Amino acid sequence: xxxxxxxxxxxxxxxxxxxxxxxxxxxxxxxxxxxxxxxxxxxxxxxxxxxxxxxxxxxxxxxxxxxxxxxxxxxxxxxxxxxxxxxxxxxxxxxxxxxxxxxxxxxxxxxxxxxxxxxxxxxxxxxxxxxxxxxxxxxxxxxxxxxxxxxxxxxxxxxxxxxxxxxxxxxxxxxxxxxxxxxxxxxxxxxxxxxxxxxxxxxxxxxxxxxxxxxxxxxxxxxxxxxxxxxxxxx
Length: 235
Description:
globular; 29% strand; Metallo-beta-lactamase, Chain A; seven-stranded mixed beta sheet
Protein backbone atom coordinates (compact mmCIF):
# COMPACT_ATOMS: atom_id res chain seq x y z
CA UNK A 1 0.00 0.00 0.00
CA UNK A 2 1.24 3.47 -0.82
CA UNK A 3 0.14 6.83 0.61
CA UNK A 4 1.23 10.01 -1.15
CA UNK A 5 0.65 13.45 0.40
CA UNK A 6 -0.88 16.06 -1.92
CA UNK A 7 -0.55 18.93 0.52
CA UNK A 8 -2.85 20.21 3.27
CA UNK A 9 -5.28 17.28 3.75
CA UNK A 10 -5.02 15.65 0.35
CA UNK A 11 -3.72 12.12 -0.15
CA UNK A 12 -3.39 9.57 -2.91
CA UNK A 13 -4.01 6.03 -1.62
CA UNK A 14 -2.82 3.17 -3.82
CA UNK A 15 -3.76 -0.39 -2.95
CA UNK A 16 -3.74 -3.28 -5.42
CA UNK A 17 -5.53 -1.94 -8.51
CA UNK A 18 -7.25 0.93 -6.72
CA UNK A 19 -6.07 4.55 -6.61
CA UNK A 20 -8.21 6.79 -4.39
CA UNK A 21 -7.73 10.56 -4.36
CA UNK A 22 -8.74 11.83 -0.92
CA UNK A 23 -9.69 15.52 -0.57
CA UNK A 24 -7.53 16.44 -3.59
CA UNK A 25 -7.26 20.24 -3.30
CA UNK A 26 -4.70 21.00 -6.01
CA UNK A 27 -5.73 24.37 -7.48
CA UNK A 28 -4.55 27.22 -5.30
CA UNK A 29 -3.08 24.95 -2.63
CA UNK A 30 0.09 26.72 -1.43
CA UNK A 31 1.73 23.36 -0.70
CA UNK A 32 1.04 21.73 -4.05
CA UNK A 33 3.08 22.41 -7.24
CA UNK A 34 0.34 22.78 -9.84
CA UNK A 35 2.75 21.83 -12.64
CA UNK A 36 2.67 18.29 -11.17
CA UNK A 37 -1.12 17.94 -11.21
CA UNK A 38 -1.08 15.18 -13.84
CA UNK A 39 1.38 13.21 -11.73
CA UNK A 40 -0.92 13.46 -8.71
CA UNK A 41 -4.06 12.36 -10.54
CA UNK A 42 -2.60 9.84 -13.00
CA UNK A 43 -4.30 6.45 -12.85
CA UNK A 44 -6.87 7.50 -10.27
CA UNK A 45 -9.89 5.22 -10.03
CA UNK A 46 -12.02 6.90 -7.34
CA UNK A 47 -12.35 10.07 -5.27
CA UNK A 48 -13.25 10.29 -1.58
CA UNK A 49 -14.25 13.57 0.08
CA UNK A 50 -14.64 14.32 3.80
CA UNK A 51 -16.68 17.54 3.58
CA UNK A 52 -17.54 20.50 1.39
CA UNK A 53 -15.01 23.18 2.33
CA UNK A 54 -12.97 24.46 -0.58
CA UNK A 55 -9.62 23.39 0.85
CA UNK A 56 -10.85 19.79 0.62
CA UNK A 57 -13.52 19.57 -2.06
CA UNK A 58 -13.14 22.34 -4.63
CA UNK A 59 -11.21 20.28 -7.20
CA UNK A 60 -13.16 17.04 -6.82
CA UNK A 61 -15.99 17.69 -9.32
CA UNK A 62 -13.56 18.83 -12.00
CA UNK A 63 -11.26 15.84 -11.58
CA UNK A 64 -14.26 13.52 -11.57
CA UNK A 65 -15.55 14.97 -14.85
CA UNK A 66 -12.15 15.10 -16.54
CA UNK A 67 -11.30 11.48 -15.72
CA UNK A 68 -14.75 9.91 -15.50
CA UNK A 69 -14.33 8.91 -11.86
CA UNK A 70 -16.97 8.22 -9.21
CA UNK A 71 -16.88 10.43 -6.12
CA UNK A 72 -17.78 9.07 -2.67
CA UNK A 73 -18.89 11.14 0.31
CA UNK A 74 -21.81 12.31 2.41
CA UNK A 75 -25.15 11.79 0.64
CA UNK A 76 -26.22 15.45 0.55
CA UNK A 77 -23.04 16.74 -1.08
CA UNK A 78 -22.86 13.88 -3.58
CA UNK A 79 -26.49 14.48 -4.58
CA UNK A 80 -25.78 18.19 -5.08
CA UNK A 81 -22.70 17.53 -7.22
CA UNK A 82 -24.57 14.96 -9.29
CA UNK A 83 -27.34 17.49 -10.01
CA UNK A 84 -25.17 20.58 -10.46
CA UNK A 85 -21.99 19.19 -12.01
CA UNK A 86 -23.09 15.94 -13.66
CA UNK A 87 -20.60 13.83 -11.73
CA UNK A 88 -21.09 10.23 -10.65
CA UNK A 89 -21.72 10.95 -6.98
CA UNK A 90 -21.90 7.88 -4.73
CA UNK A 91 -23.50 9.18 -1.54
CA UNK A 92 -23.63 7.31 1.75
CA UNK A 93 -23.80 8.34 5.39
CA UNK A 94 -22.32 7.82 8.84
CA UNK A 95 -22.25 4.18 9.81
CA UNK A 96 -22.47 3.13 6.18
CA UNK A 97 -19.79 1.01 4.54
CA UNK A 98 -18.96 0.89 0.83
CA UNK A 99 -16.50 -1.05 -1.27
CA UNK A 100 -14.23 1.36 -3.13
CA UNK A 101 -12.20 -0.86 -5.41
CA UNK A 102 -9.93 -2.91 -3.18
CA UNK A 103 -10.70 -0.86 -0.07
CA UNK A 104 -13.58 -1.13 2.39
CA UNK A 105 -14.60 2.32 3.63
CA UNK A 106 -16.85 3.15 6.59
CA UNK A 107 -18.00 6.71 7.21
CA UNK A 108 -17.65 7.86 10.82
CA UNK A 109 -18.39 11.04 12.69
CA UNK A 110 -16.29 14.21 12.74
CA UNK A 111 -16.82 17.48 14.62
CA UNK A 112 -16.40 20.46 12.30
CA UNK A 113 -18.69 22.14 9.71
CA UNK A 114 -19.36 21.71 6.01
CA UNK A 115 -20.46 24.15 3.32
CA UNK A 116 -19.74 25.30 -0.21
CA UNK A 117 -19.08 28.87 -1.23
CA UNK A 118 -22.33 30.36 -2.54
CA UNK A 119 -23.40 33.63 -4.12
CA UNK A 120 -22.60 36.87 -2.29
CA UNK A 121 -20.45 34.91 0.16
CA UNK A 122 -23.47 33.07 1.58
CA UNK A 123 -22.46 29.43 2.13
CA UNK A 124 -24.40 26.55 0.60
CA UNK A 125 -25.30 23.58 2.81
CA UNK A 126 -23.09 20.62 1.99
CA UNK A 127 -24.28 17.92 4.36
CA UNK A 128 -22.30 16.95 7.42
CA UNK A 129 -18.56 16.64 7.92
CA UNK A 130 -17.16 13.10 8.18
CA UNK A 131 -14.14 10.92 8.76
CA UNK A 132 -13.45 7.44 7.42
CA UNK A 133 -12.15 4.05 8.47
CA UNK A 134 -10.40 2.61 5.43
CA UNK A 135 -9.56 -1.11 5.41
CA UNK A 136 -6.99 -2.31 2.90
CA UNK A 137 -4.16 -4.85 2.78
CA UNK A 138 -4.64 -5.90 6.39
CA UNK A 139 -4.52 -2.33 7.73
CA UNK A 140 -7.21 0.01 8.97
CA UNK A 141 -6.57 3.70 8.42
CA UNK A 142 -8.47 6.25 10.48
CA UNK A 143 -8.82 9.35 8.32
CA UNK A 144 -10.04 11.93 10.80
CA UNK A 145 -11.15 14.58 8.32
CA UNK A 146 -11.38 18.02 9.93
CA UNK A 147 -12.36 17.54 13.57
CA UNK A 148 -11.71 18.25 17.20
CA UNK A 149 -11.42 15.55 19.84
CA UNK A 150 -14.73 13.67 20.20
CA UNK A 151 -16.04 11.18 22.73
CA UNK A 152 -17.02 9.16 19.63
CA UNK A 153 -13.34 8.39 19.17
CA UNK A 154 -13.64 6.01 22.13
CA UNK A 155 -15.96 3.55 20.41
CA UNK A 156 -14.43 4.21 17.00
CA UNK A 157 -11.05 3.07 18.25
CA UNK A 158 -12.48 0.10 20.11
CA UNK A 159 -14.67 -1.13 17.25
CA UNK A 160 -12.47 -0.48 14.21
CA UNK A 161 -9.02 -0.76 15.86
CA UNK A 162 -7.16 1.35 13.29
CA UNK A 163 -3.38 0.96 13.26
CA UNK A 164 -2.72 4.02 11.08
CA UNK A 165 -4.02 7.49 11.88
CA UNK A 166 -4.15 10.36 9.40
CA UNK A 167 -4.97 13.15 11.82
CA UNK A 168 -5.69 16.83 11.27
CA UNK A 169 -3.40 18.62 13.69
CA UNK A 170 -2.73 22.20 12.59
CA UNK A 171 -4.93 23.99 15.10
CA UNK A 172 -7.20 27.05 14.55
CA UNK A 173 -9.74 25.21 12.35
CA UNK A 174 -9.16 21.72 13.81
CA UNK A 175 -7.50 20.07 16.77
CA UNK A 176 -3.86 21.08 17.22
CA UNK A 177 -0.79 18.90 17.77
CA UNK A 178 -1.36 18.55 21.53
CA UNK A 179 -5.04 17.67 21.11
CA UNK A 180 -4.29 15.21 18.28
CA UNK A 181 -1.68 13.53 20.50
CA UNK A 182 -4.16 13.35 23.37
CA UNK A 183 -6.77 11.74 21.11
CA UNK A 184 -4.23 9.27 19.71
CA UNK A 185 -3.09 8.19 23.19
CA UNK A 186 -6.50 8.04 24.85
CA UNK A 187 -8.65 6.49 22.15
CA UNK A 188 -6.43 4.62 19.72
CA UNK A 189 -3.49 2.23 19.49
CA UNK A 190 -1.75 3.51 16.38
CA UNK A 191 1.56 2.18 15.14
CA UNK A 192 1.79 4.99 12.57
CA UNK A 193 0.45 8.56 12.67
CA UNK A 194 0.55 10.98 9.74
CA UNK A 195 -0.42 14.58 10.57
CA UNK A 196 -2.18 16.78 8.03
CA UNK A 197 -4.01 20.12 7.79
CA UNK A 198 -0.85 21.91 8.94
CA UNK A 199 2.00 23.95 7.35
CA UNK A 200 -0.34 25.22 4.60
CA UNK A 201 -0.80 28.72 6.05
CA UNK A 202 1.12 30.74 8.66
CA UNK A 203 -1.68 30.47 11.24
CA UNK A 204 -1.40 26.66 11.28
CA UNK A 205 1.29 24.61 13.04
CA UNK A 206 4.46 24.49 10.96
CA UNK A 207 5.86 21.18 12.17
CA UNK A 208 4.75 18.06 14.05
CA UNK A 209 7.51 17.96 16.64
CA UNK A 210 5.06 18.34 19.52
CA UNK A 211 2.94 15.46 18.21
CA UNK A 212 5.95 13.17 17.78
CA UNK A 213 7.31 13.99 21.23
CA UNK A 214 3.97 13.14 22.82
CA UNK A 215 3.71 9.74 21.09
CA UNK A 216 6.82 7.74 22.02
CA UNK A 217 6.84 4.36 20.34
CA UNK A 218 4.59 5.55 17.51
CA UNK A 219 6.00 6.16 14.04
CA UNK A 220 5.04 9.78 13.37
CA UNK A 221 5.66 10.63 9.72
CA UNK A 222 5.73 14.25 8.57
CA UNK A 223 4.65 13.75 4.96
CA UNK A 224 6.32 15.51 2.07
CA UNK A 225 4.30 16.47 -0.99
CA UNK A 226 4.38 13.83 -3.73
CA UNK A 227 6.84 11.64 -1.80
CA UNK A 228 5.22 8.19 -1.41
CA UNK A 229 4.98 6.52 2.00
CA UNK A 230 5.25 2.74 1.60
CA UNK A 231 3.25 0.61 4.03
CA UNK A 232 3.78 -3.14 3.97
CA UNK A 233 0.69 -5.31 3.62
CA UNK A 234 -0.38 -7.38 6.62
CA UNK A 235 -1.98 -10.79 6.43
